[in-house]
Amino acid sequence: MASAISRAFFVFACAGSVFAIQELWKRARRRDTANVDRTGRVHEKPGDNSQPSTVIIIGSGAIGLSTAYQLAKDNRELLQRQNIVVIDVYASPFGATSQTNTGILGYSSFAPNLFPLGKYSFELWKQLAQDAEFAARCGFKPCSNISVSPGKGLGLQLLPNWIQIQKRSSWNAWRDPPDAEAAIMWVYKYIVQKLPSTNWLWAYRNPTALGPWLYEQCLAYDVQFYMRTKVVSAVLSHSNEISSIQVQYKDGKVGHLDCNKLILAAGPWTPSLFRTLFPDSTVDLQPTVDVGDWIVCHNAVEDPKPSDNIGAVFLDEIVGHKLEFAGRTDSTIFGCGERIFSADMPPAGEEAQPDEEAIQKLTDYAQQFLVGGGEKVSVAIVKSGRAFRPARKTALPIIAAVPSKKLCSSRWPRPQCDKESIYICSGHGSYGITLSIGSGKLMSQIVRGKHTDVDLSSMGVE
């Protein structure tokens, strides 16, 4: 009898132990799939498998909007359900660097490790340009870059009609294609036969028109926008997956936005934003400073012909440093000068103040080289400013996912998760507009877990 009671008690104890182990395992599983913020509070993951996932993109410049556009477009074509949200501290898209550039697209001068991405993106721009509405609205059309150097007056007929060519017999001017064969084709087709070239080497688009076009395309694909909204912090799960972000709206109120994936495309502010959201991360984005002051002038040429109006003129060899002017289709001329490698970047959302001496120097150059300037008249300056380019020490952008294990190195035990949910698309330097549409397409492929059309092994996170 005692033996039977002992055996029964032993079986009961074992069953209780198994039940306790099972309960502990369930709790551990629940904790692993829960969201844990830095205060230790546990939050259940938003939604369930039947709900569409949410991708939040921070930044509404050329890279951010192109990424949102390509991701939303791909989702619709693939009949996939996904919420796309764009957040920015600026009042409207293209609020910073994206609208302060020459508007010239081209990749022939790119370094070998950047050339494939440049060509890929340029071809995507050409495909978009097949849409007559896009081409007309954004001023997208073939054009050329004209370089000028001391010489004997050769090639001056290539210069656009807004450049003063009187007394320029000491100049030589030439187009800037990548090789001699292409140069011969350009001279024969574009100069001799007066025919539009189908083998584009360079193209133009109006940056002030491209932003609104991308914005409207995103809205047509049901992309949501939160403008004048600051991202304050990020909430990670125990396995270092993104769960939500905390934001401060334009009215000062604070809220949370749930998400499954987060893309950082905040231009030159991406490195500081990443450090704010993930202070324990071991990732080094290797940012560097690259600044340029700029002016926009009124084009004094009456009724300028479009073919004469577009294109950029590089005067570096004339003045001894970087100086370029580019005609736009809105009767203005954009000018920028020397690159600056040491400057304090303002907080995101605040306008960078240009150097007054640099602006005066650019104004003097405009007075000297542009039609409308002279001893008795002055070139009309429409606006001026300073642009911080999203530059990196490697001179290559980052288009990649951030490994989960690199997001929070102080958490113990270390998360064992191969599922990535944080992505970076930034660091394009002076080529943001050229590379934007291609980078957005590639980021869409990365987020969807697909093989990318271009090898991005040199553009990962270190």
Summarize the structure.
With 462 residues, the chain is an alpha+beta fold. It has helices at residues 2-32, 62-77, 115-128, 132-138, 180-192, 207-220, 270-277, 306-309, 316-319, 356-369, 432-447; strands spanning 34-36, 42-44, 53-58, 82-87, 104-106, 141-143, 145-150, 171-175, 202-204, 224-226, 230-236, 242-248, 254-258, 261-264, 287-288, 291-298, 311-314, 324-327, 332-340, 381-388, 391-392, 398-402, 422-426. Strand 11 and strand 12 (242-248) form a beta hairpin.
If you had to describe this structure to a student in words, what would you say it looks like?
The chain is α+β, with helices and mostly antiparallel strands and 462 residues long. The chain has helices at residues 2-32, 62-77, 115-128, 132-138, 180-192, 207-220, 270-277, 306-309, 316-319, 356-369, 432-447, and strands at residues 34-36, 42-44, 53-58, 82-87, 104-106, 141-143, 145-150, 171-175, 202-204, 224-226, 230-236, 242-248, 254-258, 261-264, 287-288, 291-298, 311-314, 324-327, 332-340, 381-388, 391-392, 398-402, 422-426. It has a 7-stranded mixed β-sheet with strand order 8-7-17-18-19-16-20. The chain has a 6-stranded mixed β-sheet with strand order 10-4-3-14-23-22, sandwiched between helices.
Low-confidence stretches: 9-13, 17-21, 24-48, 178-198
Q: How many E strands?
A: 23
Mean pLDDT: 82
Helix content: 25-40%
Approximate shape: elongated
Give the strand order of the largest sheet, numbering strands 1, 2, ... along the chain: 8-7-17-18-19-16-20
Gap between N and C termini, in Å? 70 Å
Strand content: 15-25%
**Major pleated sheet:** 7 strands, mixed
Question: How many helices does DSSP assign?
Answer: 11
Helix-and-strand structural type: alpha+beta
Rg over CA atoms: 27 Å
